[in-house]
Structure formats: structure tokens, C-alpha cells
Amino acid sequence: MSRPAIVLAMEPSRTEHVLPDAILRRLDTVGRLLDREPLQRLDDARARRLLSEAEILITGWGAAYVGPEIAAAAPRLRLIVHAAGTVKGIIDEAIFDAGITVSHSAEANAVPVAEFTLAAILFAGKRAFRFRDLYVADRNRDRTYPMQREAIGNYGRTLGIIGASRIGRRVIELLKPFEYRLLLFDPMVDAAEAAGLGAEKVELEALMRRADIVSLHAPSLPSTQHMIDASRLSLMKDGATLINTARGILIDEAALLSELKTGRIDAVIDVTDPEIPEMGSAFYDLPNVFLTPHIAGAIGLERARLGEMAADEVERFTTGRPLLYQIRRQDLENMA
Fold first, then answer.
1. Which is catalytic among the residues 247, 303, 305, 316?
2. pLDDT tens, 206-220?
3. What's the pLDDT tens digit per position in 149-174?
4. pTM score > 0.85 for this model?
5. Of the residues 3, 32, 226, 294, which is catalytic?
6. CA dist list (Å): 305 to 35, 105, 245, 302
7. Structural domains in the chain plus CATH codes
8. Does residue 294 have an active-site annotation?
9. Looking at 275, 278, 321, 329, which residue is catalytic?
């Protein structure tokens, strides 16, 4: 059997480390890698030439939109593997109509997000950021010593997980060695399944009211936009922390900033809406906000997991084995 022709499509500056030499060599063993240089456009002469032969297309961050015209330009195409997170915004539904199989590496991207979230939870529980700021500002321990007597720390605290997504579930798994009480809000999960995960199923208002730390892991859907609004933020305990490594649009940011300006709660924010806050945003300046530039997902060497998972799927496909991470058209509705 001849090896299937493989074409790459992604933005090299955004996908360094995704496909290092070892993975490229592996792809060229299970298939025929037509060109090591990824396509950055899908509508020029080089793209038309490569796509006319392509049987497998590996996309990544910065890839051009794979619309219905690609199915026509690539008549031999049988598999698209997205070596990144969600395929939303990359793969048109017409690709499914054309009978092309789609898979992705979102599970690999979930690993560093969950790890980042775990670190944020542990630091939030210890109020590490406030301790740091006071210690650096005072250069003595006059204010930090009394804080150690407060009801803080990570023993016996109540943690609320919003969304039993792949990341939400991985966070729950990572939390098993710790002695938290876990609350879970997810309308797609019943009480028995939540208990199986080690959590108590609750409604969102109860979670916001009871949790010391709230961590967001819901997808961005019309029904979830601004799900964390002023009324729900007002339910949070004094001194509680809100962590968002999911999507900025899940939170009514004006309401969040209003609440944060009172100093009543803290926030660890890795994602915002817009993606980069305006220059004058209080997110940059508030002492009770730990703001990072969307780094919870795979960065640097962590990106190699994406390429490895994509190569694994290609190998399964070429050897006739079931894919582990196939995306079907109906999955798009509830995807992040």
C-alpha cells in the first residue's frame, strides 16, 4: 500500500515546536510529507499544487480557513488533523459533508491549561500574590505575619468547577491528592456522574455562593456568554478568587472590574474579551488581579504534545485503527 500524501497548513511563527524534526521524520515514515514548509495560504499556486495531491492535511494555529472550496481543490483528501485546540473557526461544516474525517489535538492542549489552573488554585488558596505584594512593598513582615492567621490556605477549602469539559475534568483529576471540597456546575452532568468525578453537583448560584475559589472551564456558546454576570459575582464570598483560563466572553468584564475595584474578591485572568484588554483597562493595574497573556495553553516546548498527538492520529488512520480524537459534525455545537 502506498503511503498517503501529507500536507501541512499553519503559521510557522505561531507553531514553533509543534512539529520538530523528529515528528516530521515520523510523518514522512507513515506517509509522504510533500513539503516541510507549511502552507500559509490555501488559494495560491503552491497550495493548489500540494492540495491536488493531499490525502491528509495537518493544520495548526494560524491556518487559513478550510472551507468548501478546499474539498474541491483536494479531491483525494481523506483526513484533516488540527494540531491545536478547537477546530471551530478553522474547519467549515462542508468538510464533514464531503466525507472528510476530522480530528484534533485539543486533549494535548488541555494538559498545560489544567496544570496552569492547578498552580493558580494553589497560589490563590495561599493568597500568594497578596503576600508577595505586601512583602515587596514593605520589605518587612509587619503586615504578612498577621495574614497568616486568617482563614486561608488550601486545607479543607471549597472549590467550584464550572464546566466538566476535557480541561475541567483534567483539573478535577489533578486535584485528587488535595483535600478540597469540590462543587461542579454543568447542566450536561447529572448528580451521579458528578459524584463519580469526586464532586457535588450544584446549580451555578450555589457554587458562586459556597466556593472559596471558582474556576471556569465552560465552552464559549451563545448560552454561556456573560454567564458570570454582576448578580452571580455578587454572590461570591469576601476574599474568594475567580480563575478564568477558558474564554473571556464567559464573564461580563465590566461587572467583574466593578467588583474587583472594591477589593472584595481576587481574580486570576488568562483570557479576556477582547483578547488584549484596552491600554487603559484596570486589569493591568488592580493589585487583586493576576493577569497573564493567554499562556495557560500550550506554549514553547509544551506544543510538541500537539504534534505528537496529531502524528499518533495520522498513524492510526493509515494503519486502519480507530481514531481517538475524531470530531463529528454534531460535536461542534458544544465545543469551546
1. 247
2. 999 999 999 999 999
3. 999 999 999 999 999 999 999 999 99
4. yes
5. 294
6. 21, 8, 19, 6
7. 5-104+300-334 (3.40.50.720), 110-291 (3.40.50.720)
8. yes
9. 275
